[in-house]
Amino acid sequence: MINQNLDIFDLRKIQINKTKAELENNGKRQQKVVSSDMLGTFTPVDRDPVKIIQITEANMIPELLPLRHQRMIASRFSFFRGTAELMEHDLKRQAQSNLPIIICGDAHVNNFGFYASPERKLLFGLNDFDEARIGNWESDLKRLLVSAELAGEENGFDRNDLYHLLQLTTKTYRHTIKSANKMSLSQLFYFSFAYEDMGKAIESFGDISTQMQTVLNKVLKKSQRSNSEEIIQKMATINNQGHLVFRDNPPRARHLSAVRYQQIVKGYNKYRENVRQDVRVLLANFHISDIIRYSVGVGSFGTRCYLIMLTGNDNSHIVLQVKEAMPLRYNLLSLPVQQVIRNGGIAGQRIVTAQRVLQSSSDRFLGSTTFGGRSYYIRQFRDMKESINVNKLDFESFQFYCQTCAYLLAMAHFQSPTAPMIRGYLKHQKILDTLLPNWALRYVDQVTADYGQFKLAIAKGKLIN
């Protein structure tokens, strides 16, 4: 089988010259090498979570680390979201299927959301690809299951109900892989899951229609208002020179030195030269009005992230997000430093490629660039982008949400040419509907222990507070 210890995002690893039937048979053979029992057995890990977190944060902006830690300490789920490197480390110590596909790398329940297609259609799917790589399908599914348990416990749901939810989520993934394997390549390529599709799916569940439909209606209304002009209204002001600029709100939002400003301008110009031709023509109508450093998220909070305000010749605006593409945390803890640096130089390209493959339709403005010795990717900021607050869902709606995430994760995985191997591996493996939830519960215990050590390190001053 193909070696999974890949140090770069090499698409040649998933371009295997075999028929679908041959790939399925490869998956069946791999099931005999790495059984479902092995995949569902948790192997205890022995490492210092605080040291691993420190390695990751060594490349981040020190001024932002206290706020980052405040976000992470809020709950076990918040901590889990901010420490993908810990699970990356631990998954390498577990049995792995060794079936190479493009994976999200961080498929927790809060990394799914709504976004706009180029035709302005509201779609739902994966929306974070910073850790995307060639990897194992079960890594994404295990992270989804652990996040569902943590978020569900945070909501106060019954543990037995949550266990059944994890089983249904695994079953949904498994059945979707079976269905996707029957689709033609063109059907898979053009697959999308729109707001309307989610509404239709809800109707078949009866009792949860009212609660979930109310949530979706709020999302639809918010997404229609979410655009660059709204961002300008909320985040911009007129300065002493009479120019429209972003508001400072340090340390989260802060204007830049003249040197860094010019670096970003050069990076933007490089991006504009390589972006889609139709976008390049559109951007010719706009000039840069302002740039600010603006931090977002939990796991990404502390990385270098900027907003560019573009003003058009008709005085309209576009706000672009320039987000640092970090070297894979999957590699950060195991590869030589120089190899990590080399990989980091093309991280923006890796993220853009993965997003275009795993999302059914991507932002037209999506592209990558480099400046100041670092790699970045660029996209529209908050353009029709919305998410469902899982903390606001009742249990039945939360279960539907998790099953929807599993469905879309499987469909994303099946964009890889090697995906029929997953179907071969999963065939007649209903036992995984129990084994993987059991693994997830064991790992929740590990997250709980790590979270305790993190809080202790904060209290003792080992981490910036």
Automatic annotation (TrEMBL):
It comes from the Bacteria. This is DUF2252 domain-containing protein.
